[in-house]
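Render PTS fructose transporter subunit IIA in 3D.
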Amino acid sequence: MNITSLLNDQSILIPLDVNDKNAAIDALAGALAESGAVTDKAAYLEALHARENTGSTGIGFGVAIPHGKSSGVAQAALAFAKFASPIDWQSLDGEPVSAAFMIAVPEEAAGNDHLKILIAISRKLIDDEFREQLLAVEDSAQLKELLGAI
C-alpha cells in the first residue's frame, strides 16, 4: 500500500498549534476538506466523534490515529499533524500525543480500506526508530519520504 498517495500537501499540518483533541480533530478534518477529499466536513466530524466516543484513538507512543468512514468523504485520504506541543488524547498509555494521522474513508468504500491504512501505519509505529523519525519531521517532504517506505 502506498500511503503517500493518500496524502495531500494541504492535509499535512506541521506544526499544528492546538490545545486539545477536539481542536486537533477539527483542524485535521478541515485540512482534508480543503484538499477535496472531504466534501461534507460536518458529516465527517460526526463520524470521527462517534468513533472517538467508542474508545480513544490515542494508540500510545505519542501518536493518535483518529478515523472515520462517512458519506461526507469523497475519496480515501490521510492527514497528518505534528503538534507544536503535546496534547491530551486520553491515550491508551496515558501519555500525551505529539502527532496524529487522520484516516478518511467514503462510507460506500469496499469494506476494509480504512483497516488496511490503519494496519500499515500501526505496524510502522511499533518500530522505535520509525517513531523517532516521525516525531522529528519538520515538513511535508520529510514526512512523505519517511512514509514512502511503508
